[in-house]
C-alpha cells in the first residue's frame, strides 16, 4: 500500500515533501555510520569501567528459604490418608452388616 493512500492525498504540493528510495551507497553510508556510533559508545563504556572501577565487594550468600514438603512426602501422606479412609470404610461396613 502506498503512503499516499494511507495518509491521504496531499492537497498542497508546497507543504508535501516526497522522499525517494535511498541508493545502495546511501544505505551503506547510513549503516556504516550507525555501527561506528554504536561501537564507539560501547568502547567508551568499556574504557571508563576499566580505568576507574575498583573491584566490587563480594556479596554474602543468600539465606536458604524453608520450602514446603517435597512432592514425594506429599504423595506418601495422601496415600496414607487414603489407606486410613479405606480401613475406616471397611470397619463401618462391618459394623453396619452385623
What does this structure look like?
The chain has 98 residues and is an all-alpha fold. The chain has a domain at 3-51. The protein is built from three helices and no strands. The protein has helices at residues 3-7, 24-52, 71-97. The chain starts with a helix and ends with a helix. Residues 50-70 are annotated as: Disordered.
Record the SSE blueprint.
Blueprint: H1 3-7, H2 24-52, H3 71-97
Structural class: mainly alpha
The rounded Rg comes to 38 Å
Tally of contiguous helical segments: 3
Question: Average pLDDT, to the nearest integer?
Answer: 82
Region (Disordered): 50-70
In short:
Residues 50-70 are annotated as: Disordered. With 98 residues, the protein is mainly α.
Give me some keywords for this one:
mainly alpha; 98 residues
